[in-house]
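Page 47, continued from p. 46.
Same chain as before, 393 aa.
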Amino acid sequence: MKTIGVFFGSRSPEHDVSIITAELAIDGLKKLGYPVVPVYVNRSGKWLIGEELGKLENFTDPKKDITEETKYQEYFLDLENSHGKIVFRKKGIGGKTISIDLAFPALHGSFGEDGTIQGLFEMLDLPYVGCNVVASAIAMDKAFTKQICLVNNIETTKFEVFSKNNWENVKQEIIAKVKQFKFPLFVKPVHLGSSIGIAKVTEEKDLAEKIEVAFYYDDKVLVEEAVDNLMDVTCCIIGNNELIASVLQESVFSAELFDFDEKYLKDGGTQLGKSESGLIIPARIDKNLTEEIQETAKKVYTALGCGGIARVDFLLDKKTNKYYANEVNPLPGTLYHHLWKASGIEFSDLLNKLILYAEDRQKNKHDLSLTFKSNILTNLNSQKLNNKKYSPR
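Result:
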């Protein structure tokens, strides 16, 4: 069987969530009989490899810090042999190698879910699970996602987006624009997930302060209108061409917004599928509206060029039944296995499908001609000779 490398951690505010997703995937893949290599990137960006990194208890023990142990830092990337696979070689003469045939990124947020590590896999011609470089980068940018939705006639909430440089130079102009929106508003760092850095603004006087806080986490910020009578609805999609939509999840939260604590801490966390009080599956909406949202989720997934798996979040006005595409998560935490189970797909089947989608995409890519041989360089050399031959003295 193919050796699968599970990549997790990284320099991201969602580092800890990534560890949970990775350990779940590692355990599931091992049960399916796959040889698994845990590849952990610590908070400072160092890459660690070792069997013990695949055990969650090694990260949860407060008396133990496995993330800096040098024995897991004894490998380097062997570029000479990394083609169609990724090879790590142990330091020293005659060091053993670890070869990975397929990558399973379990990274969330920056430096992993945003297309960065997918770019490395593409350069090495290594098949990998999940969305490709472009889809990952777009989906991790809340503003680009909304702009693509608008181009494809998919409704999203009214918004304004601006960079830190814009804010510092034309702050009053930005505030004047945003003041035209209907309050309350939400302020969001564009590239982060898990509700990190997000704030609800009910009064104009608090707007600038909340924007400054968001810029602490990102160099690009989005301000959008809130939805009245809100229901937070989620639909997961898997597939490359033939798409499968999950049943809809309704997330119930007590705070002003669906924040990090509600998602991951309270009652075990709704995003981890453990909070009985915070999850309603299927969502409390009728069959016709459910099917309409599922089809819209597929439309968003396709418009962004997603593949493998992604999660599409919607904001629904319960009184009017009007819904808005909100965000796309190109690698849902814990792969949203609880929602797929409720949809009739067990975790083992989900993992097998994701691997199959990765292999199919790789095969289709190999069917394309990605190189082109031309005479540019030989003609250039000939031109240089001619120039030299006829140049005046």
